[in-house]
C-alpha cells in the first residue's frame, strides 16, 4: 500500500508541475495567434474529445484548473489523487481476497474426511483469502476441542474484518475534505471579488468576474472529487460486506464440519 501510495503521489506532483509548462505554452500560442492571421480550418469529423469550438478537452480542463487558482485547486486535486490511491489499493486487496467460498469449503471437507486435520490445514495454508486464514486458525486449535475452535474462529474473524476495513477511515477523510477545500476556495473567491469592488469603486460584472470564477470552479472541483471518491467508497463497502458474510457462513460450516468429524 505504501509503495502504491508513493507512486501515485509522485505522479500527481509531476502532473501539477506540468501545469505551469502547459500555461507557458498556452501563452506562447496566444502570442503567435496575435501576430499571424488564422487560416480557415477545413471541416472535421465529430470528435468526442473536442468541444463545439474545436478545443481539445484536456486544454479545457487545464484552462479551468488555472482559472480556478492553482493554490486552491491543487489541494483538491491532491485529495483526489491520494483518495484514489487508497481506493485502488483496497480494491486490489479485496479482489485478491475474494474466493469461491462454497468450492473451498467443499474441498476442506473432502480433505478432512480423506486426510484428516493436517491435510485440511495444508489446503488452507495454500489458499489465499480471509476465509482460508480463519479456517487454518480454527483447525490449528482442533486438539483443544470444538469450543476452542469456535472461540478462535470468532476472534480471528474480527482480526480479518479489521484488515479488510484498513484505510477506509482515510478515504472517508478525503471524501469530507475535498468539498471543504472547495468551499474554502469559494470563500476566498468571494473575498477577492469584494476586494476588486473596493479597489475599482465599481460593481460591474467585469470587476467581480475573476473572483466569482475562482469561487465557482473550486466548488465544482471539490464536489467532483468527493463524488468520485464516494462511489469508490461505497463499492469497497459492498465488497467488504460480501466478504464478511462469506466469512460468517463459512465459519458456521467449519464448526458443523468439525463436529461431524469428531463423532467418527
Characterise the protein shown here.
Mean pLDDT is 77; it is low at 1-8, 13-46 and 48-52. By secondary structure, the chain is mainly alpha-helical. The two termini are 46 Å apart. It contains eight helices and no strands. It has one domain (1-34, 55-264).
- What is the H/E string? HHHHHHHH
The Rg value, from CA coordinates, equals 29 Å
Low-confidence stretches: 1-8, 13-46, 48-52
Kindly state the number of beta strands: 0
- Assign an overall shape: rod-shaped
Task: Give the CA-CA distance, first to last residue.
Answer: 46 Å
Beta content comes to: under 5%
Counting H and I runs of at least 4 residues, what is the number of helices?
8
The helix content is over 70%
Total domain units = 1
Mean pLDDT: 77
Taking the sheet with the most strands, its summary is: none
The structure class reads mainly alpha
Keywords, separated by commas or semicolons:
rod-shaped, mainly alpha, 8 helices, 264 residues
Give the SSE layout:
Blueprint: H1 2-35, H2 57-67, H3 70-97, H4 101-125, H5 130-140, H6 146-164, H7 168-200, H8 205-262
In short:
By secondary structure, the chain is mainly α. 83% of the residues lie in helices and 0% in strands.
Amino acid at each position: 500500500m505504501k509503495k502504491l501510495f508513493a507512486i501515485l503521489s509522485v505522479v500527481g506532483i509531476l502532473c501539477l508541475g506540468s501545469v505551469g509548462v502547459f500555461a507557458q505554452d498556452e501563452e506562447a500560442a496566444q502570442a503567435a495567434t496575435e501576430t499571424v492571421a488564422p487560416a480557415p480550418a477545413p471541416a472535421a469529423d465529430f470528435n468526442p474529445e473536442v468541444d463545439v469550438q474545436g478545443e481539445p478537452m484536456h486544454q479545457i480542463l487545464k484552462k479551468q484548473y488555472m482559472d480556478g487558482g492553482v493554490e486552491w485547486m491543487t489541494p483538491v486535486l491532491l485529495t483526489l489523487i491520494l483518495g484514489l490511491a487508497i481506493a485502488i489499493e483496497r480494491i486490489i486487496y479485496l479482489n485478491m481476497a475474494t474466493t469461491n467460498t462454497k468450492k473451498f469449503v467443499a474441498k476442506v471437507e473432502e480433505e478432512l474426511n480423506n486426510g484428516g486435520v493436517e491435510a485440511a490445514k495444508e489446503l488452507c495454508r495454500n489458499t489465499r483469502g480471509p476465509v482460508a486464514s480463519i479456517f487454518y486458525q480454527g483447525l490449528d486449535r482442533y486438539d483443544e476441542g470444538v469450543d476452542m475452535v469456535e472461540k478462535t474462529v470468532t476472534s480471528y474473524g474480527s482480526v480479518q474484518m479489521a484488515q479488510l476495513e484498513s484505510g477506509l477511515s482515510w478515504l472517508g477523510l478525503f471524501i469530507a475534505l475535498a468539498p471543504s477545500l472547495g468551499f474554502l476556495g469559494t470563500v476566498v473567491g468571494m473575498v477577492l471579488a469584494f476586494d476588486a469592488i473596493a479597489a475599482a469603486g465599481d460593481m460591474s460584472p467585469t470587476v467581480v468576474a475573476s473572483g466569482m470564477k475562482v469561487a465557482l470552479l473550486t466548488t465544482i472541483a471539490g464536489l467532483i472529487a468527493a463524488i468520485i471518491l464516494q462511489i469508490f467508497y461505497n463499492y469497497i463497502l459492498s465488497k467488504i460486506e460480501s466478504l464478511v458474510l462469506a466469512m460468517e457462513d463459512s465459519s458456521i460450516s467449519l464448526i458443523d464440519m468439525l463436529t461431524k468429524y469428531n463423532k467418527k
